Amino acid sequence: MMKLKLGQLLLKKGLVTEQQIEEAIATQKKEGGRVGEILVAKGYLSEENMVSALGNQLGIPYYSSDKPEILNPNPDQDLDKIISNDFARKNNVLPLSKHMNSLTCAVNDPLDLMLLDNLKRITGCEINLVLATKTAIQKAISNFYFGENKASMLDKAVEKSYLQTGSESSFVNIQKSDSATAELSLDSLIAKAGEAPVIKLVDLIIRQAIDERASDIHIEPFENKSILRYRIDGTLYTIPPPAPHLHLPIVSRIKILAKLDIAEKRLPQDGNITAKLEDRGVDIRISTIPTIWGEKVVMRILDKGAIKLELPALGFDTQQMDTVRTALKSPYGLIFVTGPTGSGKSTTLYAALNECIDSTKNIMTAENPVEYKIEGINQVNIRSTIGLTFATALKAFLRQDPDVIMVGEVRDLDTASICVRAALTGHLVLSTLHTNDAASAISRLLDIGIPSYLLTPSLILIIAQRLAKRLCQDCKEPYEPLADQHGGIQFKSDLIYRAKGCDNCNHHGYKGRVVVPEILVVDNKIREIISKNASSAEINDAARKNGMLTIFDSGIKLVEHGVTSFEEICRVSVNI
Fold it and tell me: At a CB cut-off of 8 Å and minimum separation 6, what does 317 contact?
């Protein structure tokens, strides 16, 4: 006999109306998901009735929550060693009994084929399914893996922890739990990571970092303390930390959010979180690494809403923007943005790509990882572990009819060669290099093996850059520069400014950052010098005679316009 579809079965049983089914199907087409889950989410159907109907439809036994005793795993078969608490909680699966090579498990989603494959792989058994609600399974997991005594200790620990928040932006102090909590196993740590205080604390740490315009959050364990630091405008600032005993639950909570392995503490792990903030999403990259005192977590905040991906907003002046825009209008050629780590290269590339967006152009990027998702651009995440390298992606791009290609970074000859070939065959290619100045980028490309006869016709522009802190416009302090005060530099302004500090900038004297660029236009004169295998110093001298401003020169202009301080320009242009 043909089995009824779930919707038809629910309708036949009188559990939902036809209109509710149609509404759920419409939502499914628009947002994805399963009809039964959508009906439960909309409040049209109880979880109990949905799982019961699903069991009826698939011919799988359903264990009603009215009889919780039947969700008791066999205590004599070491089932907790076959399926760990971590896996059970993450996947909502409970092992019940084992006979020969057959393992019976309770699940709430029998259609999750990936879960079934994983169960077979980690247990080495054939899997028999029974159904129960998610709520019933989670409760049974707690009873089985923790036991009543441990559960009651955990409840006491939760009861003793509370939040003390003076305002939305203040930090949290959670009272230390009794020593019983510290004796709980790794399994209890997973439950502790889900406690309301820890959830709120992690949310608060992330929210405050975003409000403070931080680019990174560092959570670091030491012998008797934890350290919490935010990187704001390139500098790490220490923030009042949570209590030391909360370090493990905090790290566990972050790993759960990032879908990392909570039990793996010996190896570094990487993941990501998408946080919802008012009307926008904020991407957060997670990196964990084991130290001698525990796991350190660094969270990179990629808040597209906090940064305008436009050349003027980054700090390029009118003349510099005209130079960059002229290069971006070229039908083909190679453009590099260069500088050390943390100098804003990727952000400048995104701003340049925004200039190129046009419905008549096919724009493709290869990034590791994709930092900002931009509508109208085809972005590819590089995954070297499965063979998707920059070079592999680029070779595929050339068969995708691209007009503009962005490559996150050129690291090797293979990637560089494909970039050059693409530029020579009618594509505009943008990428980054790690060099101190613009002229050194040419030497680096020659050193890794690109012949000068291929480089000279393809290269059209190089932007070297640093990020300098912007002076706080509310408190910056004017002063008259003396002739012998700044190494004999003659400023065109009678007054320049220095940092002071106020409430608006948290008494740092600076707020935000500005690009300090060095733009080398590769014209026929520069091409002639490159073809003669000139050194980077010779290329730099020729470019300066051609009108190029070095990073220091561009920085002095920013000082004269009151954007930043002389001290800040000296800091970022060291060794230039």
Answer: 557
pLDDT by residue (tens digit) across 162-176? 333 333 333 333 233
Residue 176's contacts (CB-CB under 8 Å, 6 or more residues apart) are 243, 245
pLDDT (average), residues 443-463: 93
Residue 401 backbone zone (phi > 0: left; psi -120 to 50: alpha; other: beta) = left
Number of helices (H), then strands (E), in the chain:
23, 18
Taking CA atoms, 486 is separated from 480, 565, 566, in Å, by: 11, 11, 8
Compute the distance between CA of residue 385 and CA of residue 382 in angstroms, rounded to an integer.
9
Q: What is the 3-state secondary structure (H, E, C) of 251-280?
A: HHHHHHHCCCCCCCCCCCEEEEEEEEECCE
Residue range 388-421, pLDDT digits in tens: 988 899 999 999 999 999 998 898 899 999 999 9
Place of tokens 């039990």: 263
Q: Where is mean pLDDT largest: 20-24, 112-116, 232-236?
A: 232-236
Torsion angles phi and psi, residue 566, rounded to 5: -65, -40
37-41, 363-367, 552-556, range with the lowest pLDDT: 37-41
The residue among 469, 236, 409, 431 whose CA lies nearest residue 353 is: 431
Indicate whether 278 pLDDT > 80.
no
Q: What is the mean pLDDT of residues 468-472?
A: 93
Burial class (CB in 10 A: 0-12, 13-18, 19+), 147: exposed
**With b meaning 16 or more CB within 10 Å and e meaning fewer, what string describes 410-432?**
bbeebbbbbbbbbbbeebbbbbb
Beta bridge pairs of residue 106: 94, 130
H or E element at residue 51:
helix 47-58
Q: Which of 532, 401, 379, 382 is nearest to 455 (CA)?
A: 532
pLDDT at position 113 is 76
Q: Which of 210-219, 272-281, 349-358 has the lowest average pLDDT?
A: 272-281
3-state secondary structure of 466: strand
SS3 content of the chain, % helix, strand, coil (to 5): 40, 20, 35
Q: What whole-number distance in Å separates Cα of residue 512 and Cα of residue 523? A: 34
The DSSP output letter for 62 is: B
